Amino acid sequence: MGRRHSGRNVTGILLLDKPLELTSNAALQRVKHLYRAAKAGHTGSLDPLATGLLPCCFGDATKFSAFLLDADKRYRVRVRLGVTTTTADAEGEVVETRPVAGIDESRVRDVLRGFIGGIDQLPPMYSAVKHQGQRLYKLARQGVEVERQTRRIEIFSFDLLHLDLPEIELDVHCSKGTYVRTLAEDIGRELGCGGHVSQLRRTGVGPYAEPDAPFIPLDQIAAMADDATPERLDALLLPLDSALGHWPAVKLSADAAFYLGQGQAVLIPQAPTEGLVRLYDPSSRFVGVGTILDDGKVQPKRLI
Asked: What is the value of pTM for the model shown?
């Protein structure tokens, strides 16, 4: 017998503002409990010492969470120069301290420019990357260090917001899979003094970004759950297709919607010639995602 899901059949995307010192999974489970939701998942972990955007998907939205996992990210990060730690953040033990004298705004900006574009990044030992079935952070806690493969990432922009030595505050727009802690270490190394993350906040995931998107604090959700009907909580949720707003929309005829629902590719007049598209039925209801084939037909990729 299949496992039964208890809870409400709620669907949508919550832009959770994850609090400090809480794991992403713990934050998700708390939100799922408050919503009494049958099904929920998050789209990309944040370290316990990080705050900010953790999109939580409920119900059918979980089918599209991979698109947010693959989306680019934005962070605001404070880097403490002159101090290197075992974990590249404030949780780790101090490994080395060095003076920061002589570092000025011009030098920092020059170093940041060197990171713009595609770069190869080595995942830190304190990360969730797996090595022979084990998470690297578990090996690191045992004092074990293993060889890792570099990963190709892209830094779209890297801006200096404040310089107040020994700390600098940065804004970074990067591709998925970027380790900001590693960036902080590398910046410190390039400056000749070392460094680690002292504070980190995720300010954007894909189409959602501060200050335009409403990030909802966990304590606000908890307060509403105590004295509100579930419908008030549901009003905080964004529709599924809000995560895909940068893709072209294709409206289907009744026949096209039927055949796509059967898994068949269909030819849609005036459809884009390539890439991914959002699909809507004749009543303008979002029904899923399709991809344009070489022959111009729309192939269903993920449907509700």
From this structure: 0.89
